[in-house]
Amino acid sequence: MYVEAMSKICSSKWFCTGTNSIYIIHTSLRRYTIYFYCYFLQAQWESDPCYAFYGVDGTTCSILTYLSQTEDFCPPQDGRNHSSLPWHQKPQAHTEKAISNNSSPAIKFIRSRVEKMSERWIQAGLRMKESSNNTVSTQMRVYVLLYPGALSGSVGQHFEAMVERGGPLGELVQWADLSACLTILGHNLVFSAAPGRGSCPIQRPLTFDLIYTDYHGLAHLQGAMGLAFKHYQCRFRILDSFGTEPAFNFASYARSHGYKTLWGSWDLQPLQYMTMFPHTPDNSFLGFVSEGTVRKGSELEPASYKKDRIAVVYGKQEYMWQGKYEYVKVISEELETHATVYQPPGHTLHLPSFIRNHGLLTQEHFQQLLRKAKLFVGLGFPYEGPAPIEAIGMGCVFIQPRFDPPHSSANNDFYKGKPTTRQISSQHPYAEKFIGKPYVWTVDVTNKTDIHEAIKAILRSESFTPQEFTCVGMLKRVLGYITHQNFCSKSVPTWPPKSALRVHLGPLGQSCVSACRRSSLVCEPALFHHLNTPAAMLPELNHLFPSYSPWGRQCGLQQEPLLFSCVAICLDSL
């Protein structure tokens, strides 16, 4: 029956729901070719993720649209040229939510997290709809591709192997929560692990309004798209855990001033980089959702768990424990200390005898352990992951080492080559500075008295989840970005409005971030263009471009908007 139906559609004419286009195919050879591809794609469209990249979802209409717009086997359909329509006003290619059928551990983790938290996301969406008018209208629905490049090719194979051995899951948490967030906001979503690679080329205008990817995916897409890459780069949003500062992003400046690294140099708007934590206002804070909240009545509130005198150590690889024996021993004198260190087959772990090791746990079993624990113990690595926020939300207090001197690309191999000059004062600077005591304790791990005093205080604490790491918090953030961030426009940013601008004097040796924080304000790079004029430069101002030099009595204006920077520090006179 299927072959007969497809033969009728593909042999002489075809019609797609939602369009008024009927095409006649004249030659028998052409009829046979189209029939073959219709049949092949109906049966095999999931065999290569690049088909989903172009919107193929197994339906006849999506297949014929692909054959028309991408492969040139069918005449173009009138009214289907997505790239010529205004931003946010493109027709819906399809409303189904698609996800790669990849059965890899990483995809399984993402799917499992989305399914497990689906009820929470739905309730958050309903609460947000009831409490405000910020709902997604039909005109604001966008067609989105999620492409985690770290899961494809040789990089993907290495990442998958790390996941199975207890490697980093932070990126997967963020991809899962972004998928759920965009779905709840009503956008058309395609999740693919390898677009533009394999069976289908990138040769026609992309149908996606937004493309969320990472640095690996960005390189893949550039290779597949060729010269067309520049045309579409305003649509990219880069999931970038540690952030990319403007000096590293602007390629010519990075080359000439010693900021060129393996990452960066893409000449994007710095706000197109989306971070796991709010490292710098120069980038957009995407975040994720902590699972440490439960439903109580009509609200989602911090969970309350019955706690035992248990500490869980944050470190799933044996090398992370090196040099931390005395630190963990002091903790074990007050609390039964558990670990989840991965043990390779045939390998003997050399952990302290007072540690109860569970081996690598599933996410569900790991969270069950956290719900019983009172303390989550940071060893100093991994840096800036989501686990401490999850643990705090489940009623644990997070204790971590203080770094003296701070870690940075100048003295630390992990940060070396990363496109940031940040100096990390602890394992988790966000938790240290924005949450702090009594939920986060940052200690000198060589000082036993410091550790003992922290443990005594910790035994009296309760759970806490920052609002920005709830479902509602992330929904509001992403909605704001999609509504207001339009990097394809040539006009100056209009969000935030100029009325939000407050000008403050910053001394030499201090960044705009620090100067604003002292006044309980936030540096906003989108407002820099209001200051980048001679009229705005007053004699008493002295900050990095745009700035005024009291020595030379001259204004310094920024000629390259991509270099507007909140984190840059003016150390010398201009």
Q: Extract low-pLDDT stretches.
A: 1-32, 79-101, 135-139, 294-302, 538-544, 548-553
Please state the structural category. Answer: alpha/beta
Mean pLDDT, nearest integer?
A: 78
- What is Rg? 26 Å
- Give the helix tally: 20
- The total tally of domains equals 4
Give the N-to-C terminal Cα separation: 77 Å
**Global outline:** globular
Cross-sheet strand order for the largest sheet: 3-5-4-6-7-8-9
Largest sheet: 7 strands, parallel
Task: Outline the structure in words.
The protein has 574 residues and is of the alpha/beta class. It has four domains: 79 residues, no CATH class; 188 residues, no CATH class; 166 residues, 3-Layer(aba) Sandwich (Rossmann fold); 73 residues, no CATH class. It has 20 helices and 20 strands. The strands form five sheets. The protein has a seven-stranded parallel β-sheet with strand order 3-5-4-6-7-8-9. α1 crosses α2 and α5 crosses α8. The longest helix is centred in the N-terminal third of the chain and has 17 residues.
